[in-house]
Write a sequence for this structure.
C-alpha cells in the first residue's frame, strides 16, 4: 500500500462540512470589510521568497520545498501567502488602481518541518492583504477583521498580543542594544541563536528553547527604542483598537518569523493547542513591494492557520455540528418503484432540493439504515402498492412520524 506523505492529511467526505463552515465564515467576514478574493500560483520562482521572506529566516533556511524544473529553473512551493500576493500586485500593475487594494486568499502552503499537533507540512491559510495605506487605521482594520472572524467562528477567547518592531532606523539602534545584552550570555544559548546573533539578532527573541527564553526575558524592550514616528503610529493603533472595543495585550517579545515585517506585529494566541498556541499572526510590511521589484507601497495583513483553528474549535466543543447531508432519500421496492424513485429524485434536484436513491441494490431495511447514516431528513418509501394507489409513505427521520402523500405531487 502507498501511504500518504508525512506531514500531510486527507480531508474525508464526512469532514468536508468543517472546512465549508470555516471557509464560508472567512469569505463572508472578508466581504464585510470590502476585501475581494485573490488567487496566486501554488509555486513561484525561489528568488521571490529569498528576497521577500528573507534569507535569514527558518522558512528559507530549513523549511522550503525547492526543486529545479525541467528547464533548470529553481521553483519553490509557496511557504506563505504574502510574498506571492506582493509579486502579483507588482506584475499586474495593481498599484495603478485606486488604493487601498484589499484582497484575501484561502490557500495551501508548504513547509518542511516536524509535524505536530495543528502543524502540518501542507496546511491551509486564510490571509488578508491591504495595500496602499501607511495610516494606523489600516492596521486597526486588519486586526479588527481577524478579531471578528475568530469571534464569528466561535473562538472569542483567543488573546490578541500586539507589538511594534519599528522602522529600519530605530530597529538598528535596538539591534545594537540587544546584541550588547545577548553577547554577555551568548555562550549559554542554542546553536541557532548563536548563528542568528550576527545575521538577525531580533530573531533570537522568537526562539522557543527554554534556556534561551530565560535569557531573553530580561532583554531590552524594542518599544523603548522606537523613534517618534513609530511610537506615534503604535499609539494610534492602540487607540483605534480601544475605540472598537478589541481587547489586546502589549507583548514586546513578539517579532514574528519573517524579515519583511515593520512597525505593527500581532498574534492571536490560544492555549488550547498546547505550546504552539498562535492561531493567527500578522503585521505591517511597508517595504515588501519594493523588495520584490515594485514602487514603495505600504501594506498590512495577516495569515491564519485553518488546521489550528479547527483544532481549537474541536478541542473546546465550539465547532458547529454537521447538518443533514440530504433532504430526501427515496427507498424503492421493486423494479417499477426504482424507475419512479429516479424520477422523484430528478424532480427534487431540478427544484434545488438534495435527494438520493438506492444505486447499489440494497434491501428496504438496509436502505433505511443507510438513510439514517447519511442523516437524511426524510425517507420516501415507494413500492408496487404505492404506485398503484398513486401515493408514497414519507418518514420524518428526526421525529419518526410517517405520513402519506400523492406520488404525483412528489414528481412535480
Amino acid at each position: 500500500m502507498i501511504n500518504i506523505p508525512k506531514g500531510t492529511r486527507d480531508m474525508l467526505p464526512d469532514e468536508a462540512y468543517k472546512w465549508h463552515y470555516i471557509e464560508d465564515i472567512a469569505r463572508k467576514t472578508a466581504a464585510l470589510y470590502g476585501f475581494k478574493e485573490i488567487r496566486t500560483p501554488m509555486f513561484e520562482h525561489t528568488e521571490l521568497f529569498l528576497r521577500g521572506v528573507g534569507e535569514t529566516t527558518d522558512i528559507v533556511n530549513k523549511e522550503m520545498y525547492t526543486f529545479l524544473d525541467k528547464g533548470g529553473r529553481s521553483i519553490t512551493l509557496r511557504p506563505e501567502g504574502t510574498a506571492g500576493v506582493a509579486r502579483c500586485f507588482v506584475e499586474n500593475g495593481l498599484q495603478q488602481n485606486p488604493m487601498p487594494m484589499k484582497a484575501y486568499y484561502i490557500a495551501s502552503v508548504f513547509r518542511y518541518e516536524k509535524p505536530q499537533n495543528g502543524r502540518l507540512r501542507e496546511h491551509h491559510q486564510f490571509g488578508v492583504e491591504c495595500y496602499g495605506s501607511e495610516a494606523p487605521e489600516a492596521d486597526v482594520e486588519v486586526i479588527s477583521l481577524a478579531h471578528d472572524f475568530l469571534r464569528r467562528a466561535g473562538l472569542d477567547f483567543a488573546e490578541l498580543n500586539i507589538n511594534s518592531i519599528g522602522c529600519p532606523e530605530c530597529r538598528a539602534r535596538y539591534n545594537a542594544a540587544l546584541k550588547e545584552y545577548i553577547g554577555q550570555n551568548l555562550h549559554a544559548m542554542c546553536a541557532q541563536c548563536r548563528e542568528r546573533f550576527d545575521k538577525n539578532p531580533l530573531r533570537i527573541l522568537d526562539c522557543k528553547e527554554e534556556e534561551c527564553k530565560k535569557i531573553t526575558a530580561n532583554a531590552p524592550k524594542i518599544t523603548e527604542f522606537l523613534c517618534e514616528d513609530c511610537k506615534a503610529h503604535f499609539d494610534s493603533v492602540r487607540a483605534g483598537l480601544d475605540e472598537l472595543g478589541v481587547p489586546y495585550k502589549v507583548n514586546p517579545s513578539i517579532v514574528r518569523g519573517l524579515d519583511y515585517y515593520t512597525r505593527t506585529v500581532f498574534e492571536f494566541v490560544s492555549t488550547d493547542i498546547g505550546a504552539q498556541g498562535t492561531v493567527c499572526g500578522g503585521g505591517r510590511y511597508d517595504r515588501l513591494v519594493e523588495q520584490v521589484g515594485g514602487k514603495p507601497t505600504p501594506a498590512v495583513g495577516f495569515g491564519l492557520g485553518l488546521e489550528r483553528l479547527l483544532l481549537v474549535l474541536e478541542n473546546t466543543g465550539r465547532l458547529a455540528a454537521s447538518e443533514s447531508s440530504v433532504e430526501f432519500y427515496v427507498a424503492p421496492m421493486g423494479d417499477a418503484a426504482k424507475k419512479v424513485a429516479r424520477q422523484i429524485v430528478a424532480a427534487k434536484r431540478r427544484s434545488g432540493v438534495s435527494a438520493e436513491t438506492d444505486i447499489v441494490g440494497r434491501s428496504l431495511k438496509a436502505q433505511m439504515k443507510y438513510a439514517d447514516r447519511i442523516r437524511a431528513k426524510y425517507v420516501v418509501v415507494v413500492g408496487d402498492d404505492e404506485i398503484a394507489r398513486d401515493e408514497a409513505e414519507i418518514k420524518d427521520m428526526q421525529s419518526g412520524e410517517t405520513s402519506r402523500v400523492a406520488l404525483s405531487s412528489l414528481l412535480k
